[in-house]
Amino acid sequence: MMPPMHTSALVLFSGGQDSTTCLAHALSRFERVETIGFDYGQRHHVEMVARLTVLTELRQQFPAWSSRLGQDHVLDLAVLGQVSETSLTRDMAFRMESTGLPNTFVPGRNLLFLTLAAALAYRRDLPVIVTGVCETDFSGYPDCRDDTMKAMQLALSLGMDKRFLIDTPLMWIDKADTWRLAHTLGQQADAAGGGQRLVDLILEHTHTCYQGDRTHRQSWGYGCGACPACELRAKGFAGYMGQPRG
Ligand code: ZN
User: Fold this and answer.
1) Which of 27, 46, 160, 202 has CA atoms 20 to 30 A from the CA of 213?
2) Residue 3, in any domain of the structure
3) 229 C-alpha to center of ligand 1: Å?
4) Nearest to 21 by CA among 241, 174, 212, 225
């Protein structure tokens, strides 16, 4: 558990399943929670819209969290498009590279996100930075690994002369457990059906699909159903439905 001095946090919030679960985690623990998102010229503006919808729905459906949920910050990171050619920032088809990483991978992207988040957290006096990175993820992004997070926590704390804590609630759990965690957090926030309500909110309003598909409603939410992000989300939800409450 967090030491008692940590009462506020900044959540890296993209509007996806993982970062929404991280936001619920933060709202259940901290008195003041702010969010940060990055607009870096995604092919699909769907994510930027989804994150605002999720914030609105969380406020409306979870009054206990509404008073804790503070400012949302969006930083323009169009500069990422200048240093990368990937299917997220250019009009290229999604594919897996020979390295085993999808071509959506922007080298060091999370390092940039965390550095900017820490700079904002410094100004906003938010000592905890919450991020939904995960080592059990299919893609194995090196900038999502636990060692990278520990190194970043140290580098940011030293480089800004301020003690930051990088909180990664999803690091060692799979996607089925991420659904279970959401259910648990929702239920804690509101014993009268909050668990299912948060699961339903995430199903309906978060966005994960690489193709930006919001037209096909699957049992696990909206998405093309064919891209690796959809496959991962579908597999996780199937696992959750097979054994809903861990
Ligand atoms: Zn998809």
Assistant:
1) 27
2) no
3) 6
4) 174
Residue 161 inside a domain? The answer is yes
DSSP 8-state class, residue 143: G
Judge whether 163 lies within some domain: yes
H-assigned helices in 13-79: 17-29, 46-61, 63-66
pLDDT category at 103 given cuts 50, 70, 90 is: low
Q: Distance, CA 3 to ligand 1 centroid (Å)?
A: 39
CB 75 within 8 A of CB 115: no
Q: In angstroms, what is the span from residue 222 Cα to ligand 1's centroid?
A: 8
What ranges make up the beta strands (E) of the chain?
8-12, 32-39, 69-76, 128-130, 165-167, 217-218, 221-222
Q: In whole angstroms, how far apart are CA 148 and each of 38, 107, 119, 136, 165?
A: 20, 13, 18, 15, 13
Q: What is the pTM of this model?
A: 0.90
| Domains in the chain, number | 1
Q: Which is higher by pLDDT, 42 or 121? A: 121
Give me ligand 1 centre to Cα 210, in Å: 5
pLDDT, one tens digit per residue, over 31-51 is 999 999 999 876 668 989 999
Q: How far apart are CA 98 and CA 168, in angstroms?
A: 28
Within-domain flag for 2: no
C-alpha separations of 235 from 57, 226, 244 in Å? 25, 12, 13
Instruction: Tell me how far apart the alpha carbons of residues 198 and 185 are, in angstroms, rounded to a whole number.
Output: 8
CATH at residue 189: 3.40.50.620
The whole domain housing 82 covers 8-242
Side chain identity at 66, as an amino acid letter? S
